[in-house]
C-alpha cells in the first residue's frame, strides 16, 4: 500500500515549510513547490532524512501557470495519487487606493489565480482519493478590512469566496475544502508587524489547525477557520 501524498506550495519557508514538515511527520510522501530551488532542495533533503518519506519538488513560480501545472501533474503521475493540496504560496504588498496596478495584479495572480490553477490541476487526482482535502491559506484580512492593506485584503477576500464556493462544488466529488484565515503568523512575512515573536501566532498553530480539521469525521465540513492573534484582539478591544 502506498503512502498518502500531500502537495504543498510555498514550501521553502514560513508556513508552507512548517506544514510540509507536519505532513512528513505524519508519513505522507510529498510534492513541494516554491521559487527558491536551493532552499527547497535543502528542505526536501531534510524531510527525507528525518522522516524517511519520498519528496519530489520543483522550483517554479506558481504564477507561471502552464509551467506550474505541468510540474504538478508530472509529480502526481509519478506517485499515482494525491490526497491533500495545500495552497500556501502567497505574497504581501502594502497599500489600498494608492497601490499600483502592477502590485494589485501581482497580488491577484499569486494569491488567487495561482490557487485556482492548481486546484483545477489537482482535482482529477484528488477525486480518486478516498479522503481528499484542499487547504487554502488566506488571512484575517480576507474576512476583516484594514485600511493600510486593501489590495492584499481584496486578494484574500477573493480567496475566501473562492474557497467557500469550491467547498460546495467539490463535496459531491468527496473532496473537502478548508480556507484558513490566520492573523499575524511568526514568519519572515510578518517582520514589519511591530509584534514580538511571542505576540504572534506560532507557525505550528497552522499545523495544529490542519491536524484538527483532518481529525474530523467524514460527515463534518469545516469550510473556513479564522485564527485570531490575542494581541491584536486586545488592541481592538482597547480602541473600542
Automatic annotation (TrEMBL):
One Pfam family from the record: adh_short
Residues of the Ketoreductase domain: 4-174
GO function terms (MF aspect): oxidoreductase activity
Record-linked InterPro entries: KR_dom, NAD(P)-bd_dom_sf, SDR_fam
UniProt keywords, alphabetically: Oxidoreductase, Plasmid
Transmembrane segments: none
Gene Ontology CC: membrane
Protein family (similarity comment): Belongs to the short-chain dehydrogenases/reductases (SDR) family.
The name this protein goes by in its record: SDR family oxidoreductase
Species in which this protein is naturally found: Azospirillum brasilense
Lineage: Bacteria, Pseudomonadati, Pseudomonadota, Alphaproteobacteria, Rhodospirillales
Amino acid at each position: 500500500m502506498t503512502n498518502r501524498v500531500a502537495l504543498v506550495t510555498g514550501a521553502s519557508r514560513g508556513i508552507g515549510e512548517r506544514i510540509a514538515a507536519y505532513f512528513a511527520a505524519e508519513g505522507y510522501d510529498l510534492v513541494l513547490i516554491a521559487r527558491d530551488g536551493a532552499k527547497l532542495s535543502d528542505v526536501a533533503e531534510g524531510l527525507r532524512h528525518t522522516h524517511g518519506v519520498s519528496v519530489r519538488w520543483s522550483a517554479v513560480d506558481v504564477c507561471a501557470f502552464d509551467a506550474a501545472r505541468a510540474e504538478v501533474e508530472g509529480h502526481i503521475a509519478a506517485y499515482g495519487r494525491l490526497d491533500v493540496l495545500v495552497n500556501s504560496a502567497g505574497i504581501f504588498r502594502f497599500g489600498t487606493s494608492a497601490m499600483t496596478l502592477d502590485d494589485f495584479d501581482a497580488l491577484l495572480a499569486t494569491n488567487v489565480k495561482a490557487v485556482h490553477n492548481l486546484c483545477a490541476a489537482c482535482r482529477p487526482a484528488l477525486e480518486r482519493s478516498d479522503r481528499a482535502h484542499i487547504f487554502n491559506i488566506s488571512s484575517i484580512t480576507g474576512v476583516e478590512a484594514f485600511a493600510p492593506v486593501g489590495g492584499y485584503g481584496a486578494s484574500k477576500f477573493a480567496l475566501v469566496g473562492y474557497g467557500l464556493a469550491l467547498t460546495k462544488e467539490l463535496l459531491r466529488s468527496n473532496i473537502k475544502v478548508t480556507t484558513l484565515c490566520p492573523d499575524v503568523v511568526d514568519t519572515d512575512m510578518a517582520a514589519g508587524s511591530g509584534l514580538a515573536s511571542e505576540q504572534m501566532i506560532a507557525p505550528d498553530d497552522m499545523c495544529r489547525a490542519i491536524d484538527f480539521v483532518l481529525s474530523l469525521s467524514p460527515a463534518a465540513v469545516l469550510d473556513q477557520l479564522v485564527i485570531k492573534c490575542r494581541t491584536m484582539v486586545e488592541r481592538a478591544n482597547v480602541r473600542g
